[in-house]
Amino acid sequence: MLFDQLGLSAELLRAIDDKGYRQATPIQQQAIPLVLEGKDILAGAQTGTGKTAGFTLPLLQRLQNSRPTGRGVRVLVLTPTRELAAQVGESVRDYGRYLPFKVAEIFGGVSINTQISKLRKGVDIVVATPGRLLDHVQQRTIDLSGVDTLVLDEADRMLDMGFIRDIRKILNLLPKKRQNLLFSATFSKEIRRLAADLLNAPTEVQVAARNQPVELVTQIVHPVDRSRKRELLSHRIGAENWQQVLVFTRTKHGANRLATQLTTDGLNAAAIHGNKSQAARTRALADFKAGKVRVLVATDIAARGLDINRLPHVVNYELPNVPEDYVHRIGRTARAGQEGHAVSLVCVDEKQLLRNIERLLKNNINVEVIPGYEPDPRIKAEPIENGRGSRPSGHRPGGGNGAGNGRPKVRGSQRHRSSGGRRRAAV
Question: Which domains does the chain possess?
Answer without folding.
Answer: 3-206 (3.40.50.300), 217-367 (3.40.50.300)
